[in-house]
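Design job #97: recover the sequence.
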């Protein structure tokens, strides 16, 4: 009997609380890293704890490594569905990304109007903006307008590659699946400065094997063995901190889905993309202003608190006005996957 599965990347049956919680923690960690870096003195407790908060970036890579395969594994996803898959991804992430670029340009202009402004005159490079549209900044010596954008370029490259891999994996050929995943993982040994995506395929891989485990393609013992092996490689390529957080994120996704009473972290998880995009241009300005007036660590901590609150409020509004409509638009693109 034939039937059509109207697949949606955001379908509720695929919702995992653990992913949302970890995403919320990672977004907050990146915010605190950017707000404390160069602001709080090295003698303070905050500065001792926060130097490693940038690791939230790698946690996002683990989550992305997990989410897309988890959504599509086991479905008859074929080459003819690839275009729809990419379009759904673009409609999901691009509106917020493009809107954040517009906000940055606007804020840069408004900043030059302030009597407190001491930087260069306002200018926008059309060439640099175009490079942003294609995530090509690092390939053509451009300059990222937002220091977090480089990670979005890596994520987008992953979306392109993982779609092709899923076409292979859903053919139910065990050997083809193992070989192609192994090759993807091995790309992390061939790293070039202008293609930082290659450097992170080991981190994406630990999320991918987590998806294989959650979809019951591999046993718990095999999953833990693969996590240990990939963890060793991540340590070889990166650092022990990245290893601990990457492995921890994979284990958290795999085994902590029963945690459901941390509503505040779920809130941060829901707005995490908006918070990630806006915390530097919004909260960063609060920090820059605070540097002029805050001298003691207590005053600086208060400024950081205000920067977080302002960033979260802006992210929540941005989430409601931009992300939610883009989610709805993405859901309208149906992947009519027919299964026998």
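Job complete. Output follows.
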């Amino acid at each position: 009997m034939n039937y059509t599965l109207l697949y949606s990347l955001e379908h509720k049956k695929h919702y995992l609380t653990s992913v949302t919680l970890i995403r919320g923690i990672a977004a907050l960690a990146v915010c605190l890293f950017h707000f404390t870096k160069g602001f709080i003195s090295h003698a303070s407790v905050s500065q001792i704890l926060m130097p490693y908060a940038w690791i939230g970036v790698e946690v996002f890579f683990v989550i992305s490594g997990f989410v897309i395969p988890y959504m599509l594994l086991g479905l008859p996803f074929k080459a003819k569905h690839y275009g729809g898959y990419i379009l759904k991804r673009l409609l999901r992430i691009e509106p917020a990304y493009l809107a954040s670029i517009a906000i940055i340009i606007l804020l840069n202009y408004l900043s030059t109007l302030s009597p407190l402004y001491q930087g260069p005159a306002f200018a926008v490079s059309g060439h640099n903006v175009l490079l942003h549209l294609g995530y090509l900044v690092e390939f053509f010596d451009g300059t990222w307008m937002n220091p977090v954008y480089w990670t979005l370029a890596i994520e987008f490259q992953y979306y392109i590659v993982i779609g092709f891999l899923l076409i292979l994996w859903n053919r139910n050929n065990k050997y083809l699946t193992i070989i192609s995943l192994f090759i993807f993982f091995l790309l992390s040994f061939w790293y070039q400065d202008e293609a930082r995506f290659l450097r992170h395929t080991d981190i994406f891989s630990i999320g991918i094997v987590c998806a294989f485990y959650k979809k019951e393609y591999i046993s718990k013992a095999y999953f833990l063995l693969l996590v240990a092996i990939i963890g060793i490689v991540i340590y070889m390529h990166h650092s022990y901190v990245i290893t601990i957080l990457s492995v921890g994120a994979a284990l958290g996704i795999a085994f902590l889905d029963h945690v459901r009473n941390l509503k505040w972290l779920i809130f941060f998880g829901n707005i995490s993309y908006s918070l990630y995009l806006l915390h530097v241009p919004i909260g960063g300005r609060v920090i820059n202003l605070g540097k002029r007036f805050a001298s003691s660590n207590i005053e600086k901590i208060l400024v950081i608190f205000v920067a977080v609150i302002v960033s979260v409020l802006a992210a929540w509004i941005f989430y409601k006005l931009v992300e939610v409509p883009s989610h709805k638009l993405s859901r309208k693109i149906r992947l009519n996957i027919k299964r026998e």
